[in-house]
């Protein structure tokens, strides 16, 4: 029966009709993507058409000046967006927010309203389509049902979602040809505490902007400097999203995938990723069709999707956008995940965002490419062709190095989760040691500055390829000149400089980028203040800083942060040993990482900069601990159920059938002819006995963990004792999968899930 269900699902996958989606056309001619980019977004361009000019100008002024919206402007925007939305089939609106669940949340309200008037002829009811400024600005979801870490009691339900004016409203399809207006929002409690991921991200962006503007004002104070004055610095972000796409029918036959997002049992097939032929290979037709449809939807939503390709593991893929302001980039990443999920269902596929859905093949990350840009579009992390004299770049660079050096534990906490623990340090993602890769060229520049010497310009010998400056000469006359980047890329580094940005590679694929980027922004803002203090001390009573003053401070921070820089293989055991000698923490598991949030060096910085209040920070710590424990307990209970109700009964049936076969063969042919069957029973029996024993131990341990009151001790006990026990169970189940007849096995196997 189990084999029959699997085969039927596979056949259904091959026989299902192909889904066809029409590419947007005009008069039969395909449109350029730029012609319908953002057509479902109430962008500034759209607002300029829909609003009276004075109102639009006032909105832009308030938006760019980070001022509170006045009532007249808000009412006008609300009226304009309602008309614009309803003309496109919108019937409902929702304040779309990011609670601390790792996903998004929404509550739909209709534009329909009722106005009742009473007169001498009795009551009369008018049905109106209305949307006021107050409805646009604020809504009230139940705050008691979201994670709050103790800041909210279950009987204190009031919370508020508030329109984030920096992120544009957009439309998404609803049921039966209707649509829904989405209003990006923050989520706070009745008392104003942040209950979401976005509020703290906005705070950190403002803190970093203020610090960066102050630093630029200090170092660019030379009257001969003709550059325009910087009034705002934006954190920019490009989020590379990795994921798996598998057949939805087969997914439905895997209770572990459905409940936990990962396979709790399952053996690797003989061929998986070891041939290295999937990476950048030809995308399967059904996958390309699904991703193309998702791209169409995302283009309409103003998400600048740029790249799609196969990843390393079979059935693993990646999509990546063009850089945007960080707060909008986070919204767009969460929107990308949501659209992919919906579109995959239309193609009878299932998207998996878990960091490690399949044991033994690469997991998925969310590489966050982070940089700083002024309001004039200048990238502050662009080294230019002469980084050694670009003191503006070098000062921001050493400030970032200092941030990572001082707050490495905090950055590790930002990417910690039960699911990401399976991926970090597994020769596919950076280990729990946070370090920075700069590349050979920048490393030499920093070393030369530190040692007060000239930069070494000799190029390394590279076999048959001659490297001259930044040009690669391949000795092929038909090729144009090949420009070489200033730095190579180090895919093993958790925080790598990649030319004009840093790539934070350790972020998990399932999590929102908000929290890790909030912590990074905050650490850099604090570090910039430290650099400024050193500059001011060096400046003294002089009217402005000299180049020697700047070099003195740059040299000071180069020396201070040298231990955090590493140019080698972060996956190697030698690096683990070297990092220990350098005094760098190696935080292997999440419970320890979460504790870094409350370390005084981190907690004081976050509270002082106004990113978190003390209660918000402590609540965040408790929420993360609680989620960690719940995630593993759900996995353990799922595994316990699978083994007791499916694996063990099948193992008993298999042994019984072997025993009956042995008995029958003995009667017909004699005992000598039953040796193969007896050998299988002898191998299987101790595995079944161990499996039963370890599964019973999980049952007992779940009861023990339930009696522990202290959240940290509960998390520690779960990580130290329950996870190894689950691995013991898994290893026995995987051994049985190799022995038990395929027609009896209850679940789709890896070779069926990973290969189309």
UniProtKB/TrEMBL annotation:
InterPro entries (UniProt xref): Gln-synt_C, Gln_synt_N, Gln_synth/guanido_kin_cat_dom, Gln_synth_cat_dom, Gln_synth_gly_rich_site, GS_Type-3, GSIII_N
Superkingdom, taxonomy of origin: Eukaryota
SMART domains reported for this sequence: Gln-synt_C
PROSITE patterns the record matches: GLNA_ATP, GS_BETA_GRASP, GS_CATALYTIC
GO molecular function: glutamine synthetase activity
Gene Ontology process terms (BP): glutamine biosynthetic process
Domain called GS beta-grasp: residue spans: 91-192
Domain GS catalytic span(s) in chain numbering: 197-647
Pfam families for the chain: Gln-synt_C, Gln-synt_C-ter, GSIII_N
Homology family: Belongs to the glutamine synthetase family.
UniProt protein name: Glutamine synthetase type III
Lineage of producing organism: Eukaryota, Fungi, Fungi incertae sedis, Mucoromycota, Glomeromycotina
């Amino acid at each position: 029966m189990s084999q029959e269900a699997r085969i039927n699902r596979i056949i259904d996958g091959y026989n299902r009709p192909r889904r066809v989606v029409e590419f947007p056309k005009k008069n039969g001619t395909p449109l350029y993507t730029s012609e319908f980019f953002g057509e479902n977004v109430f962008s500034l361009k759209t607002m300029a058409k829909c609003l009276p000019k004075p109102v639009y100008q006032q909105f832009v002024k308030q938006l760019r000046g980070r001022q509170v919206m006045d009532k007249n402007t808000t009412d006008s925007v609300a009226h304009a967006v309602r008309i614009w939305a309803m003309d496109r089939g919108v019937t409902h609106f929702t304040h779309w927010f990011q609670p601390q669940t790792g996903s998004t949340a929404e509550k739909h309200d209709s534009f329909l309203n009722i106005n009742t008037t009473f007169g001498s002829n009795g009551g009369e009811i008018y049905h109106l389509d209305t949307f006021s400024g107050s409805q646009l600005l604020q809504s009230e979801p139940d705050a008691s049902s979201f994670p709050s870490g103790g800041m909210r009691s279950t009987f204190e339900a009031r919370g508020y979602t508030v329109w984030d004016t920096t992120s544009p409203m957009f439309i998404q399809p609803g049921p039966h040809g209707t649509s829904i207006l989405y209003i990006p929002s923050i989520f706070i409690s009745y008392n104003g505490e942040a209950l979401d991921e976005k509020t703290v991200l906005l705070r950190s962006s403002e803190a970093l902007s203020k610090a960066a503007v102050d630093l630029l004002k200090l170092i660019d104070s030379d009257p001969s400097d003709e550059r325009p004055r910087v009034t705002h610095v934006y954190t920019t972000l490009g989020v590379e999203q990795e994921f798996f796409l598998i057949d939805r029918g087969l997914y439905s036959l895997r209770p572990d995938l459905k409940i936990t997002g990962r396979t709790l049992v399952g053996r690797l097939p003989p061929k998986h990723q070891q041939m290295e032929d999937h990476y950048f290979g030809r995308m399967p037709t059904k996958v390309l069709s699904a991703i193309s449809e998702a791209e169409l939807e995302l283009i309409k939503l103003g998400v600048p999707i740029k790249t799609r390709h196969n990843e390393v593991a079979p059935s693993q893929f990646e999509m990546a956008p063009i850089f945007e302001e960080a707060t909008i980039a986070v919204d767009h990443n969460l929107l990308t995940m949501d659209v992919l999920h919906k579109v995959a269902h239309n193609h009878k596929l299932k998207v998996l965002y878990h960091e490690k859905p399949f044991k033994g093949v690469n997991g998925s990350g969310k590489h966050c490419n982070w940089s700083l840009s002024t309001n004039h579009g200048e990238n502050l992390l662009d080294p230019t062709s002469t980084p050694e004299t670009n003191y503006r770049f070098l000062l921001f660079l050493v400030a970032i190095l200092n941030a990572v050096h001082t707050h490495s534990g905090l950055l590790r906490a930002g990417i910690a989760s039960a699911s990401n623990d399976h991926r970090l340090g597994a020769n596919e993602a950076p280990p729990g040691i946070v370090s920075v890769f700069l590349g050979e060229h920048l490393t030499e520049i920093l070393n030369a500055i530190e040692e007060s010497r000239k930069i070494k310009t000799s190029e390394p010998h590279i076999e048959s390829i001659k490297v001259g400056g930044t040009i690669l000469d391949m000795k092929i006359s038909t090729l144009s000149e090949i420009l070489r980047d200033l730095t190579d890329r180090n895919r093993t580094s958790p925080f790598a400089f990649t030319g004009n940005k840093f790539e934070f590679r350790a972020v998990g694929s399932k999590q929102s980028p908000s929290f890790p980027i909030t912590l990074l922004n905050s650490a850099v803002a604090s570090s910039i203040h430290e650099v400024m203090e050193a500059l001011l001390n060096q400046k003294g009573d002089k009217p402005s800083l000299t180049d020697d003053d700047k070099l003195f401070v740059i040299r000071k921070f180069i020396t201070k942060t040298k231990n955090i820089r590493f140019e080698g293989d972060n996956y190697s055991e030698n690096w683990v040993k070297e990092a220990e000698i350098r005094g760098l923490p190696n935080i292997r598991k999440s419970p320890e990482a979460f504790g870094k949030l409350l370390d005084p060096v981190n907690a004081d910085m976050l509270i002082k900069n106004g990113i978190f209040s003390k209660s918000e920070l402590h609540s965040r710590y408790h929420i993360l601990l609680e989620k960690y424990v719940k995630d593993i307990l759900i996995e353990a209970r799922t595994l316990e159920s699978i083994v007791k109700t499916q694996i063990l009964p099948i193992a008993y049936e298999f042994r019984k059938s072997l025993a009956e076969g042995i008995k029958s063969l003995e009667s017909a042919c004699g005992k000598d002819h039953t040796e193969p069957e007896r050998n299988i029973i002898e191998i299987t029996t101790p595995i079944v006995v161990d499996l039963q024993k370890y599964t019973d131990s999980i049952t007992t341990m779940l009861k023990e963990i339930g009696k522990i009151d202290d959240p940290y001790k509960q998390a520690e006990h779960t990580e130290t004792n329950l996870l190894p026990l689950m691995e013991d169970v898994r290893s026995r189940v995987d051994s049985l999968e190799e022995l038990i007849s395929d027609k009896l096995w209850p679940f789709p196997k890896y070779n069926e899930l990973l290969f189309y």
